[in-house]
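Worked example

This section walks through a single chain of length 599. The input is the sequence exactly as stored; nothing has been trimmed or padded.
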Amino acid sequence: MKSDLLRAERIQHGWSQAKLAEELGVDTRTVRRWERGQAVPFPYYRQKLSTLFGKTPEQLGLPPDIDEDNATEQVAQPTTPDTPVPTSFLADPATFPLMSSNSSEDESQQPIESLESDLLEDCEPEYHNLRQTVADYAPIQRDVLTTQEQPLRSLVGYIQTHQHATYASGNHLFSFRSLWDLRIHMKSGSSSRFSNRFSWYPLLIISTILAWVLLIITVLPAFHQQPSPRSTHVLDTYGFSSYTLTIPTVDPSLQNTAEHLHQTFKAVYLQLVNRFALDPATAPRNVTLTFSSNLSSPGATSDTTITLNADWMRQHPTDVGLLTHELTLVVQQYRSGVPAWFSEGMADYARYEYGPADDDWSLPDAVQPQDSYKQGGGIAARFLVWLEQYTTLDIVDQLNHALQTKQSFASAFHRLTHRTVDELWNQYTGYPVIMLLPEQLYKTVTSRKPLYQSSLRVQSSQQGGIAYTYAQGLYMSNFAIQADMTIVHGNNSGGGFVFRGSSDGSPGEDRLRISPNGSYDIVNQTKSLVSGYGLAFKQGLQQINQMTIIVQKHTIYFYINNQFITQVDDMTTSYGGVGVIAVDFGDPTDIRFENVKVF
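Given that input, the structure is written out below as tokens.
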């Protein structure tokens, strides 16, 4: 690939790398790797580059287009200094840099804007987001000033599915940029979710007591009984939807850990059943969790009973993803004789995918010379993530299904990859890079089977109010939510998603709001995380825009109409419900959400 031709064509057009990236719908780092010869554009982007510049791929120094239908069947070869990377990956080869000694570029020849973009990319993400926000706002300063001159009441109504509106006193100036200045004051609702995080304001003590009295009366069977500190044997049953986790015996020293594990169960089990159970309708609905000090390992599973090492959990109280690992084994329901490395590796793969977010665990950073996939656990899980990126997106799901339907694992693996496990392990150890660009993360996550689908409509007719509609029965940690949003009415308002929120009024939730003019902000309760303008957003009323939020651990990714917009970290929330919102900034708001999917 003659990368200097692509770079020369861009400079001839007077474009910066950031400008070209915007036209293509990728990030600046990807364009920079293309121009340095460190990566080869995917055929889709080669075609876009040819159309954009009016030249053939060869004239731009790019390899000719290949048959994309056959590309999915080719497997990445290991990269060495003398071995070029093939250009036919399922994943965008921008994630598979060439290991060539000639990949450096004379940075002094880059235009100033390109150098500035390079510097920003190497700095903290906050600096890049700040610059991008300023740049996005520059063309529309007049709109910003006009909107900010509108005085509104800083008053937020909390409205659940049945839209119970509440209000608080106090006048403030409110603008579309100041959603984080809102204060949400809650009254009792018709439903509640358990939370072990409480931070009550003094002025709400009375209403809080009354709310909890009502909640205890109405939903007591769904929650556990708090044991006396002196009690050593308590029957605790936790339930959500139609799935329950029962802990027959809880030592007081493990009570907080048990509650944390209950939270984990609520957040991940439905996702595991939806994705990995052979038939979700017949998946185990009641799981028993016990603690024992006689285990030689941190955890063990037999049928639907999980046993965790009590001493281990006392020493590692944040190792709650261990439950995700064991729950995956419960859902697999394999017959005896299946490859143990895959069963255990898939369990840690599920832990990597679904968390929960506050699980103090991660995949190995790299592969070691002595490692083997036959060791299972995190080593095998990392190999599965690599296979997912460089062979086929659903390889883990298909191998899991093959074992559940009593197929030969070796035959299924060869059918999917045209290689043996050992052959691909050798390629993996030669180049064990696992890295997903936001665009590839989007493709990977949204290609999976959703666990929730619906259409919702939210209206807010009170100035300074926010109307909430939560997806019933969902309590999530790592997840994605997507919907086709249409702002039917409300020129000065907007709507979007609420996630990791609590319908019982407990503090802490993340919200995405976007207005008809494309301005957006992501906030945590009252703190701004990021704001800007979505250039991919189709402005105005009665316009359909597909909105997507993907949350992995503590990173939030935001997309509009299949295009990546921004990402931001939020360490304050790890669990909660997901839903949609409508915001009234002085103009009654009516928003329609169609094709709502939660993954």
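What to look for: Residues 66-203, 219-240 have pLDDT under 50 and may be disordered.
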